[in-house]
Structure formats: structure tokens, C-alpha cells
Design a protein that fits this description.
Helix content: 40-55%
Radius of gyration: 25 Å
Largest sheet: 6 strands, antiparallel
Structural class: alpha+beta
Distance between the termini: 28 Å
Number of domains: 2
Order of helices and strands: HEEHHEHEEHEEEHHHHH
Length: 349
């Protein structure tokens, strides 16, 4: 079921992107022949509105907008025949719609929960056969004290675990409203990608704040994520040492799905009425989709924007055949890059 939720969410983000193009085109009077839900072949026409066919297609993932074609196959379509400022507006509207959706998602999250504060250390995963599992610790447990001393943050817990490596360590945990003590023996040499106790933690907590503060938090979170995404390739290229390299990587479908599945799992462990971590990840994906589409690469919105800006600068239109050829080559290169990124996630490292 999680994989279905993931592809529905990702498909909706792509469809919303195309909706941005469509609404902008209609706003400036560019005729649109078809707004497709999913990708061809066409299954049926849902309805026709003001000259636009709204269709449902066989591949139910994402969508597309087809401007009215020219009188001949060699002629530019309605979008390319429009004034260049209108073309730019239509092309930018798709990415902007993704950024707006991300902002609205964060507004919903902060309105529902308030301001995030690191009040509790919550276990969201326990490694099988680990010391924590042997001690009876469970996902959802809150660690409130170590050896009888209340802990303030993750650093306090890490210091206590290091000091008790190979020796019993009493932990006070809160579980479903009750408090109990368990005894765990942290490992001196844990397996790869596991900690001494074999648990995965998150700092968790919310506090109520005024409405305007919640809206400000949504705006700041969106802007910070946009800034981080824009700065990532710059920092990657300018890093001189491994320590200077930014944290993060380009994810394919498997990586994105794994992150989404983890977020849903954490939401279930915490018993949220609203899937806050899954929604936050959807917002991040929406921002990524919007910003990446602005990269000046053929077949992306940014590539077409670059062509139009060049035409405006040199006051000459790029021949239609050249543009189509450029976008076609860019499309195949983009598909090759996507295949390589996804293969990298499946091949052994």
C-alpha cells in the first residue's frame, strides 16, 4: 500500500506542475488542445472545456499539456507563436506551482502541530537481535532518563552509552503513558550502520504558537529548502575537502520510495492524526521538482526558458526544427541520466 501512496503522491506533484502551465496559458490566452491526466495512449476523454480536451490516459502517472498545434507539422505550436513574455510566464508557472504546493503543505503541518521543539528522544526503529531488542525496547518508546538521570538531548544519551560500552545501562522509558526501566548492554563494536544499542532515534516535540508564527515557520522552511537545493551543486563543485562536501545525494525512485516509506512508518509509530513526516517529504519532493525543472537543460522548463531569453537578447527566433531537435536530444540525455541514477540504487556498491 505504501508504494501505491508514493506513486500517487509523486504523480500528483507532476500533474500539479502541468496544471500550473495550463492555468498560466489560459490566463494569457494561449489555446490548449489537450490537458492529459497520465501519459498516452489515450483511454477516453473526460470532458471538453473552452476548446480543451481533458483526457485520461493509459499510464496513470503525472500528466501533460499540449498547446494547439500549428497549421503544418513544421509550424510552431500556439505556445511558441505567443509573445515571448507570455511564453516565459507559462514555463515558469509549472515550477512556481510546485513551490506553492510545498508552502501550502508546510502551512497545513504547522497549523496542525505548532512549532517543532526537540523535547523527547523517540525510538522509531529497533534493529533485530540488537541489545535494545533483547532488552525489550520497542518503536515508539520515549527515553526520558539514563541511569536515573534525566537526559536533555541526544548528546547526553550518546555520552552515557559510550561510558557504559560492554556494561549494563539502565534506561527509563515512557511507553503508552506508563514509565518503566529496562537494562541494555551497549556493544563495543556494533555491526555496520548500527549503533551500540541498535536503535534509531529522532528528537520530537511540538509547542503551540500564534497563527502568524506558524505561517512564518511554513514560509521560512520553504525558503530554506529552496536555498539548500540551489546551493547544493555549488557547494559540491567548490568543496576542497570531504568535510566541506554537502550532505545529501541525488535519489532515484527507489531512494525516494524508501524515504517516503520510512516517513510513513515514523508517522505510524508516533500515532499522528496527520502524517506530518510523510507530508513534509512530499513538500520537499515538490520543491525539488520545481527547482530541478528550472535547470537550463534541454527538455526541462529551464532549457526552454534559456532559449527564449537568448532569442530576446539576440532578437532572433531559433528555427523550430532546431529547437525540436535540441529538446529531443536533451530528452534522451535526461532519460539516460535517470536510468543511470536508478540503476546505481539497485547495483551493489
Amino acid at each position: 500500500m505504501d508504494v501505491l501512496f508514493f506513486f500517487i503522491a509523486l504523480g500528483l506533484l507532476i500533474l500539479i506542475h502541468e496544471l500550473g502551465h495550463f492555468l498560466a496559458a489560459r490566463a494569457v490566452g494561449i489555446p490548449i488542445e489537450e490537458f492529459g491526466i497520465g501519459f498516452p495512449p489515450r483511454v477516453f476523454t473526460l470532458f471538453t472545456w473552452q476548446g480543451t480536451r481533458f483526457t485520461f490516459n493509459a499510464i496513470p502517472f503525472g500528466g501533460f499539456v499540449r498547446p494547439q498545434p500549428g497549421p503544418t507539422p513544421e509550424s510552431p505550436d500556439a505556445l511558441r507563436r505567443a509573445p515571448q513574455k507570455h511564453q516565459l510566464l507559462v514555463l515558469i508557472a509549472g515550477p512556481l506551482m510546485n513551490l506553492l504546493v510545498a508552502l501550502l503543505v508546510y502551512v497545513v503541518v504547522y497549523l496542525a502541530f505548532g512549532k517543532p521543539v526537540p523535547r523527547e528522544l523517540v525510538i522509531w526503529y529497533v534493529e533485530p537481535n540488537s541489545p535494545a531488542a533483547q532488552a525489550g525496547m520497542l518503536p515508539g518508546d520515549r527515553i526520558v532518563a539514563v541511569a536515573g538521570k534525566p537526559i536533555e538531548d541526544l548528546e547526553d544519551l550518546q555520552q552515557a552509552v559510550q561510558a557504559h560500552a560492554g556494561r549494563p545501562l539502565p534506561l527509563t522509558i515512557r511507553r503508552q503513558g506508563g514509565v518503566l526501566t529496562v537494562e541494555v548492554v551497549p556493544r563495543r563494536t556494533p555491526p555496520p550502520n548500527q549503533g551500540p544499542m541498535g536503535i534509531r532515534l529522532l528528537t520530537y516535540g511540538w509547542e503551540p504558537v500564534p497563527l502568524l508564527e506558524r505561517l512564518r515557520l511554513a514560509w521560512v522552511t520553504t525558503v530554506e529548502q529552496i536555498r539548500a537545493l540551489v546551493e547544493f551543486p555549488i557547494r559540491l563543485l567548490t568543496a576542497r575537502t570531504p568535510e566541506e562536501r554537502p550532505q545529501g545525494e541525488v535519489l532515484g525512485f527507489r531512494g525516494m520510495y524508501t524515504s517516503f516509506q520510512t516517513a510513513l512508518y515514523v508517522d505510524r509509530v508516533l500515532g499522528h492524526s496527520l502524517p506530518v513526516y510523510a507530508l513534509s517529504l512530499v513538500a520537499s519532493l515538490s520543491i525539488s521538482l520545481g527547482i530541478l525543472n528550472l535547470i537550463p537543460f534541454p527538455a526541462l522548463d529551464g532549457g526552454r526558458i534559456t532559449v527564449i531569453l537568448g532569442e530576446m537578447l539576440f532578437r532572433r527566433r531559433l528555427p523550430v526544427q532546431w529547437e525540436y531537435a535540441l529538446m529531443l536530444v536533451g530528452f534522451f540525455v535526461l532519460m539516460l541520466v535517470m536510468v543511470l541514477i536508478n540503476l546505481r540504487e539497485w547495483l551493489p556498491q
